[in-house]
Every structure is written in structure tokens, then in C-alpha cells.
Amino acid sequence: MTATAVPQSAPAAARSWRPPTIVDTLRAEWTKFRTVRSSFWSLLVATVLVVGLGALISLAASHHYSQRSLSDQLGWDPTAVSLAGLTIGQLALAVLGILFVTSEYSTGMIRISLAAVPHRSRLLGAKLAVFTLVALVAGEILGFVSFLLGQAIIHGHAPSASFHQPQILRAVIGSGLYVALLAVIAVGIGTILRNAAAAIATVVALLFVLPGVAQALPSSWRNPVTEYWPTQAGSQILQIHRDAHTLAPWAGFGVMAIFAAVVLAAAFALINRRDA
Amino acid sequence: MLTKRYGPTVAVDGLSFSVKPGSVTGFLGPNGAGKSTTMRMILGLDRPSSGEVTVNGRAYRDLPAPLREVGALLEAKALHGGRKAYFHLLCLAQSNRIPARRVDEVLALVGLENVGRRRAGGFSLGMAQRLGIAAALLGDPGVLLFDEPVNGLDPEGIVWVRTLMRSLAAEGRTVLVSSHLMSEMALTADHLVVIGKGRLIADTGVDEFIRANSEQSVLVRSPQAPDLAARLQSAGATVVGVEPGLIRVSGMESPAIGELAARDGIVLHELTPQRASLEEAFMELTRDSVEYHAAGAVAQ
Q1: Domain residue spans of chain B
Q2: CA of B38: how far to CAs of A275, B17, B28, in Å?
Q3: Does any CB of chain B come closer than 8 Å to the CB of residue A102?
Q4: Domain annotation covers residue A9
Q5: Is A118 within 8 Å of B44 when comparing Cβ atoms?
Q6: CA distance A133 to chain B (A)
């Protein structure tokens, strides 16, 4: 077999350099992340949505507390109320994760990136690690801020929550964990679809559309769907009050983690197989 | 033999060649001949359907620090336009453990030191080409691949790229430059690899190529053109009428034509030897039946 070869050339420049490692790839991906404006804006939008909506929902819900029915009052979950901004705000973070990958494809940058890091799993792994860490940190900060602000708003109008109570810390820390897992899914779907519009539509369907459609199903179908739907199951980590037909917090989180692992496996398989 | 199929389409078909250090090799072919596909396969971006590509004896993806060994410019505008030029280069440098000061060096080298803090999306095509070349030079590599590097450059930029490629080769580096412009390659390259429809047509020195492929003809203007044409034809030349009073003669050199005319008392107003331009030679070579033309040109 013959080969198209570009043989050794450079005048035997002694190798004065050390080969790069995964740390260098991580550093490069972090530089990529922080040097585009979409990162800043998406994080700002996520903050406004999570904290702002959380505060608004806390305000509205607690002021109507006394007019609620007894069964509603029994199901009152001030932690979940204060974290409710995540339901919408998570989308801004998911979109950011999608764009972090798909912008490489839409701009053609991916060819430059892969020429620099031809080990594709390493490139995707670094991208994934950087963005998951960003999402985790952002999710924790947003979770704690929303919780503290929400409880301050609720306090005096309805029973509020504090970290002294059992499970509360788990739910607030869980907001970061949930967002981090969503970040993994977003990066994975972005890698699989390589197109921002398609990936965002998929994530919107995953988060909002399909769970909404499930509500129209007869209860014998609806209950298992809402119980095991990955993002629904994962969001149990944010709940203190457990509704019927929902998984326990960590079990639900586990279901979402399994889903994320499947998405990731597909993403790694595809990026290694496809032409760039 | 390198082959790349996309579904039923064969983009690269049994291609085999090697590129040597210390010279500029022109990688030439009409649009759609498979040049970019081949370059992508060299860089490990596209996987060959069969065959293999090695750089410095290794598959590209086995290079520990690829930017230190191979610098490539593909499409200049294929980068994130929202990122400032400096950071575009910085993330590439970091990925290959190249010190950050090298970023400033290559920016200065390509004349972009004053716009490094501007977003690459606002760059003209010429500036983007320079940025792409800066990226290729980041790791001071021994092998350089440029895909259509003069696209969008102004005349000054074209001369600059030409000079740069020549000096890179003079330093002993391997330089492979693709182009669909033969005239550009004639000025830059020492060696040519010509492909058409994904197949190798020629792998030869530039001078050899010109000699082998540029047919000579002579433009003759005469008030007695038809008479002269008949006499030239009977002497074995091929004559084509260009316009009344002007004929193109091939198969006979201008001295012989002039002597024939003098002998027969024919008045000549013009006798101009024509050398088919390299561009014409190239078009002739790649026109249609690739296999047919290949027979005469391939040097192995």
C-alpha cells in the first residue's frame, strides 16, 4: 500500500518541548469558553431568570398562602418554590452548553480545534469538563442565592425553610448538581446534532414539551412517564415535598444520570467516527 | 492509494504522492478535484475510505503535539468570529503547550499586531488569511499546509504570502500549497502535484511541467494569409484561422515560417511566437479525459 506522506523535514530542531496533556486541553477549552460574549450573556440571563423568577414566584406564592386549601398547604414546599426559577433559567444554561459545542461546527472552528487536538475524546472530554464545572458552580451559586432570597421573601407570609431542617441542604446543593447534569446532556446533544437549532429544540422538547404532552395522556400512561422522564426524575433532587408518582430524590437523580451517560456515550462514539 | 468516498461520490480516487522538505509543492487541480478533501485527510479530519496518510512517518492523530509538527491553513473564515484574534491563537497555543508569548510573535510576523485585540469576525478575508497563517506558524512546525492561501488577498498580500512560503521552504520546511490557479503556482512552487477528479494527473517539477505541457504556436499576420496557410499546411504545419488576415500556426517554428514566406514571396506583417500560458496548459491537462492526459505528464 502506498501512502500520501509528508516526510520529516524541519532541520533537526532538537525537541525542546514537552508533549501537551489533558491539562493543556482543559486550559485551552477554558480560554475558548471565557473569550466569547455568549458565555457572559447566557450566564447573566440565567442569573436573572433563576434568581428573579425565583423571587417573584416566592412573592406570589407566599402571599396567597393563607387563601390556599388545606391540601395545598400540606404540600407547601418553600424550598422548591424559591428554586422554581430554575425551571426556566436552566434553559439559558443548557443553550450555553449547546452553543459551546455547536458554534465550533457552525463556524468551522472544529477543524482548527481537531487539528490542534486530534485525539477527539480528549477534546470532547475537556469541553465537557469545563462546561460541566461552569454549570455546577453557576448552579450552586444561583441555588443558594435563590434559596436565601426566596426564604427571606416568604418569611412572615408563609412557613419558610432553613438549613436546620432536614433535606433542605440536599435540595439547594441539588440545584447545582441538577444543572451540572443538564450541562452534560446539553453538551452531549450538541455534539450529536452539531447544530444549535436542532439541539436547542431537542432540549426544549426534553425539558418542557414532552413532559407537557404526557399530561394529556391517561393516568396509567402518564404516571410512569412523569416518574421516569429523565429531567422530571432528576428535578426531584430539588423537592422536599414528594408528590405521588415521583421517584425519591437520589433515585430520580440517578435516572437522569443514566440518561446523561447514554447521551454521552453516543456523543463520544459519534465524534470519534464522523468526519469533521 | 488514498481513496475517499462520500456515498456514491468518489472525491479522492487512488491518490498517491509524497511531499518533500525544502521546497514548495503546489497542489493543483480545478475546483472540486479533491484538494481540500485530501488536505482534510492529511490532518486526520476526514477518515480515508481506504489507504493512509502519514506525516513525518506517523498518522496525524498519533502526533503528540500536532501544531509543533504541522501547521495548516484551511478556510480562513472558519473560526469563531466572536473571539478576539489574540484569544483565538491563545487557545490553540495552550492546547499544544506553546508559550503564550509565541502568540504575540506570530501576530507580529503576519502584520496583525495592531488588531490582535479585535474580534476575528470583523476581519476582512485578507486579514483572516493572515490570522490563519499565524495559527499555522504558532508551533514553528516543519510541515506547512496551505489551502488556497492567496484567496482574498490584495496584490501586496499575495507577494507577501509568496515570499513567506518560499522562505519557509528555504529554511528546510515542507510546504504544500493548494491552488486552482496555475499561474500562481508557477511563481511559487518548485514542484507540482496535479489532480483532477480525485486522481493524480501529474507529480513533476514546475519547469518540466511547463515544458511538457505548453504547446508552442506562432501568430502570423499577412495580407496573403489564405495562400500562406495552404503552403504551410502542405509543409506539415497545422493552421487555424483567427480572423481575416491572421492565422495561428503550430508545428512549425517562427524562423521556418518566415523563411518559407520569403522563399515564396509572401508579405508578412507580423510573426509572433506564442507560448501557451501555464493556465492554458493546466486547463488542457485537466479538461475532461483525465486518464488520457495523464499518460503524457506523469513523471514517476
Answers
A1: 2-211, 216-275
A2: 13, 11, 12
A3: no
A4: no
A5: yes
A6: 18
CATH number listed for the domain at residues B216-275: 3.30.70.100
CA distance B240 to B233: 10
Distance CA B88, CA B81 (A): 9
- Distance, in Å, from the CA atom of B110 to the CA atom of B161, rounded to the nearest integer, reads 9
- Closest partner residue to A24 among B40, B84, B94, by Cβ? B94
| CATH number assigned to the domain covering B2-211 | 3.40.50.300
Q: pTM higher than 0.90, yes or no? A: no
Residue A248 DSSP SS3 = coil
Domain count, chain A: 1
Question: Which residue range(s) make up the domain with A192?
Answer: 22-273
The alpha-carbon gap from A116 to the nearest alpha carbon of chain B, in Å, equals 6
Tell if the CB–CB gap between B19 and A5 is shorter than 8 Å: yes
Query: Within a domain: residue A7?
Result: no
Are the C-beta atoms of residues B298 and B285 closer than 8 Å to each other?
A: no
Alpha-carbon span A201 to A214, nearest angstrom:
18
Rg of chain A's alpha carbons, rounded to an integer? 22
First to last CA, chain A: 25
- Nearest chain A residue (CA) to B63: A118
Give the integer Cα–Cα distance in Å for A11 and B171: 8
- Cβ–Cβ under 8 Å, residues A82 and A146: yes
Task: State the Cα–Cα distance between residues A201 and A185, nearest whole angstrom.
Answer: 13
CA torsion, points A28, A30, A36, A41, in degrees to nearest 10?
170
Burial of residue A148 (number of CB atoms within 10 Å: 0-12, 13-18, 19+): middle
Residue A168 grid cell = 433542605
Residues of B in contact with A116 (CB under 8 A): 66-67, 92, 95-96
| Residues β-bridged to residue B176 | B25, B145
- From the list A8, A24, A119, which residue is nearest B61 (CB)? A119
* Amino acid identity at B46: D
Contacts of B174 in chain A (CB under 8 A): 6-7, 9
Domain-embedded: residue A10: no
Does the residue A2 lie in any domain?
no
Residue by residue, pLDDT tens for chain B (300 residues) are 899 998 888 899 999 999 999 999 999 988 888 999 999 999 999 999 999 999 999 999 999 999 999 999 999 889 999 999 999 999 999 999 999 999 999 999 999 999 999 999 999 999 999 999 999 999 999 999 999 998 888 899 999 999 999 999 999 999 999 988 888 888 899 999 999 888 998 899 988 887 777 667 889 999 999 999 999 999 888 888 888 889 989 888 888 899 999 999 999 999 988 766 667 777 777 775 344 444 433 333
The amino acid that residue A81 corresponds to is: V
Judge whether B34 and B196 are in contact, CB under 8 Å.
Answer: no
CA distances in angstroms from A161 to A55, A60, A185, A196, listed in the order given: 14, 16, 31, 39
